[in-house]
Design goal:
The protein is an alpha+beta fold and 202 residues long. The chain folds into 2 domains: 6-85, no CATH class; 99-201, Rossmann fold, CATH 3.40.50.300. 36% of the residues lie in helices and 21% in strands. The chain has helices spanning 48-56, 81-87, 109-120, 125-138, 155-167, 185-201, and strands at residues 6-17, 20-32, 64-71, 74-75, 92-95, 173-176. A 4-stranded antiparallel β-sheet has the order 2-1-3-4, with helices on one face. A two-stranded parallel ribbon has the order 5-6. Strand 1 (6-17) and strand 2 form a beta hairpin. Bound molecules: adenosine-5'-triphosphate and magnesium ion. Magnesium ion binds at residues 48-49, 177.
């Protein structure tokens, strides 16, 4: 039997606020194997984003987390911060709902890629650019757009750039938190199709 990629057992995430605790996630268990897709559905405020953030370890420090979350057999809660940082963005990547809030308007797409790649791996600038070009090409964005700034792209293109950026490190797990909410239905269908193709390919 192979080890699950991700396993949550009785996961509880409670935010501490001035007016007491908010039970955002309250006893969630699931297991995900390689090449599996897990969809989380629920009304607004039911804790979907909180679940995603707990996997990435990007919750506020005061948050109380109970239960266990194992990534490839390692308990995420007991990992030292620098090991968690290594996993985040490399082995586990996240696609956010609104790509504009994640792209810095002052930096070109190329600079975004170079920074992302070199935060995780010591590679030359040229190698980072080569990888960026390949990742963007797989999303249908030509090399000639590397020197462009975020505002020079359409919403659908920006989301494809975000997906390319999250895939450039070959993550084992990709978390997509409503990746198409800010897009129209045609582009939404395209993005979902891309995600499904990627799952099959990788
Ligand atoms: N940093 C925080 N501090 C305190 N409470 C929070 C914090 N972040 C989220 N919450 C609360 O936790 C609950 C779950 O929020 P979460 O964002 O996970 O929901 P969601 O299912 O992603 O909702 P949506 O569909 O609107 O994105 C909500 O009641 C929210 O108000
Ligand atoms: Mg959410």
């Amino acid at each position: 039997m192979t080890q699950p990629v991700l396993e949550a057992t009785s996961l509880r995430v409670h935010y501490e606020t001035r007016r007491g605790y908010v039970k955002a996630v309250d006893g969630v268990s699931f297991s995900m194997d390689q090449s599996e897709t897990l969809g989380v559905v629920g009304e607004t405020g039911c804790g979907k984003s909180t679940l995603g953030k707990s996997i990435l370890g990007i919750l506020p420090l005061s948050t109380r987390i109970e239960g266990s979350l194992q990534f490839q057999g390692k308990d995420l809660a007991s990992l030292p911060p620098d090991e968690l940082r290594k996993i985040r963005g490399k082995d586990v990547a996240l696609i956010f709902q609104d790509p504009m809030t994640r792209l810095d308007p002052l930096f070109t797409i190329e600079q975004h890629f170079i920074e992302t790649i070199r935060a995780h791996e010591k590679v030359s600038k040229d190698e980072a650019i080569r990888r960026a070009t390949r990742a963007l090409a797989s999303m249908g964005i030509p090399e000639s757009r590397l020197k462009h700034y975020p505002h020079e792209f359409s919403g659908g293109m920006r989301q494809r750039i975000m997906i390319a950026m999250s895939l450039v490190m070959n993550p084992k797990l990709l978390i997509a938190d409503e990746p198409t909410t800010s897009l129209d239905v045609i582009v939404e269908a395209q993005i979902l199709e891309i995600l499904e193709d990627l799952r099959r390919a990788y």
